[in-house]
Amino acid sequence: MLTAFRAFSRSKWSAALLVLIAISFVIVGARMDVFSNLGPKHVIDAGDRSMNEAEFRTAFDQVRERLQQQVGRPLTNQELVAENIHVRFLTEQTQQLGFLNWAYKAGIRPGKELIVKQIRQIPAFFNSVTGQFDQQAYEAALAQQNLTPAMLEQDLRDQYATEHFGAAVFAGARVPRIYGALLAGSAFESRDGRWFEVTPAMAGQIPAPTDAQLNAFIQENADRLRAPEFRMVSVVLFTPEGSANAPISEDRIRERFEFKKDTLSKPETRSFVTLTAPNRETAQKIAAALRAGQSPADVGRANNITPAAFNETPRSAIGDTATAAAVFGLQANQVSNPVQAGVGFAVAKVTAVQPAAPATLDSAREELIQELRAEDVKTQTYAKVEKYEAARTAGKNLADAAREAGGRIVDLPPFTKDGKLPNGQALNAPPQIFETAWSLTKGGESDVIDAGQGQYFAVRVNDIRPSALPTLAEVREPLAAQWIQRETMRRLSSKAEELTTRVRNGEDIAAVARSVNAPLTVRTGVIRNQQTQEALGQGVLQGLFGQSKGQAFSQPASQTAYVVGRVDNVRAANPAVAGPLAEQVRPRLTQELVQAMVEASVTAGAQRSKAKNDPAQALSALGLSGGATPAAPAQ
């Protein structure tokens, strides 16, 4: 047998068989790891949908910007990663892309007309002068958010698909009446009970803490008590010497006017009306009706389109180049042919033509003077910067170079990395100062920093106060009060539990209250609502409605007291009262149920799409590194 195998292995049939086996591995997808490293790297893979590093970084930047607006200070990716925000966002995006991949394959695909309609409802995409959709404004607004038209349109398709799916689920859902009945029954249930308060006097006098106890308390609360790192810096400010009203020579004004005369002149403008149709056929009908003498308003009503009127509009203010060319190629009272605009087909009718008007020196004088003065200020400032840098290059330190250049040195109060003063208030200074201060060591001096708008500064770190716990001498009095408060509540809790145990063992609660000289409160028909909570306190309500009939309870009543009580009776809700509420809450319960169903559907769709993500790739996209491994498919 072995001889036969050896003979076969040396034959040409053996080589052919090996080739067939190799091909079969490729066909069934048994790829070697070396091939898996080829092709683009994705942070998220979900069937036909994916998200690469650039897309993940752009989406995460938007999350960071929203969080910065909420907290009122700059945030770094490192800070967000430390809070695990990137993992939560990555998981949400994985689930969402997986669901959208499933939804598309299931046939949930919004039409193009819905997307166009949505885009045309966004004010940022319209020219502020003409009020017309502006393709350039559209693309510029998206570019500011690191988006493209294709990305926005895909996002709108995804939104429509998600909303339509949720609406379909909601349309067929309604919770049973018993759900509302249970909620209404709980809301109108009433209880009888007795209770009394356990006060600090019952717990005994707390002696003053020792130094050892306070030091231990500091260590127990180190995270809360630790002061952040502070930095003390000197800032060199470069400001101009001249006055804001310094005279400008007539020669300079005239020279600038000659240079800018064309831009200062009033260009030719047109007054016109446009009607934008969804297709070419409708646009041709509109053009024919306008040429036949019908008014734009009548034509618009007949085609369910609102005309857009433009008064004395220059060509540069018309966002769509095709529309602009058509309008400025017409004479007064002429109508254009249909024009393929950024969104739809536009037809324009020119109502008036206003010729260009050249600028005069007198009309532009004030504007030119202000412009020249602003340039002088920047020139003076930058001259100081150049003199300062020359002195630094010559070996002078920051202070000597600043004095030689005429810079102003300002010593800032101690501040944290996020620009907060010791009292917690924000320091009013450019963020670049905080960033620069934390990039230097003690005694370090920065180069000149361009803060924009013609502002320059340099920073020297004078001292660093490291993050540290306060000394006992610094916080003894307030810390002692907190320690006593904690020990008082511990004793109160122990005393309340002792008294509650006596009630649980069968002793009458009235007798237990008398034993500690506590007045007993007796109430019947207590219901759970806001008024009752304000009158009795949250602790009493939690105790009364958290136990069964005949059971005792112990709950914190405030920061200085506990409550011990007993549930004497439980009365069911009156059906005549609870019934209407049961019907009223059904829509809200249905909404909550639908939300849970949609969330479950999203998870199921992600599972069907075998959606998965790569946390390490996500960190790489954020410019960070980590040893995370790819996550399992979405569950």
Task: Describe the fold and architecture.
This protein is of the alpha+beta class and 635 residues long. The protein has 27 helices and 15 strands. A four-stranded antiparallel beta sheet has the order 12-3-14-13. Strands 9-4-11-10 form a four-stranded antiparallel beta sheet. Helix 9 crosses helix 26 and helix 23 (530-536) packs across helix 24 (538-545). The two termini are 52 Å apart. It comes from Brevundimonas nasdae. This is SurA N-terminal domain-containing protein.
Question: Helix proportion of residues, in percent?
Answer: 40-55%
Low-confidence stretches: 1-10, 12-40, 627-635
State the shape.
Answer: flat
Q: Order of strands across the biggest sheet?
A: 12-3-14-13
Any idea what the radius of gyration is? 38 Å
Strand portion: 15-25%
Structural category is alpha+beta
Helix run count: 27
Q: What is the oligomeric state here?
A: single chain
Distance between the amino and carboxyl termini: 52 Å
Mean pLDDT: 80
For the secondary structure, the number of strands is 15
For the largest beta-sheet, the strand count, sense and barrel status come to:
4 strands, antiparallel
Secondary-structure topology with pairs:
Elements: H1 2-9, H2 12-28, H3 33-36, E1 42-46, E2 49-52, H4 53-71, H5 77-82, H6 85-105, H7 112-119, H8 135-144, H9 149-171, H10 177-188, E3 190-198, H11 200-203, H12 211-220, H13 222-225, E4 230-237, H14 250-264, E5 269-277, H15 280-291, H16 296-302, E6 308-314, H17 321-327, E7 339-340, E8 345-354, H18 361-393, H19 398-405, E9 408-411, H20 431-437, E10 449-452, E11 455-465, H21 472-504, H22 509-515, E12 521-527, H23 530-536, H24 538-545, E13 552-558, E14 561-571, H25 575-584, H26 586-608, E15 612-613, H27 615-621
Antiparallel strand pairs: 1-2, 1-15, 3-12, 3-14, 4-9, 4-11, 5-6, 5-8, 7-8, 10-11, 13-14
Protein name: SurA N-terminal domain-containing protein
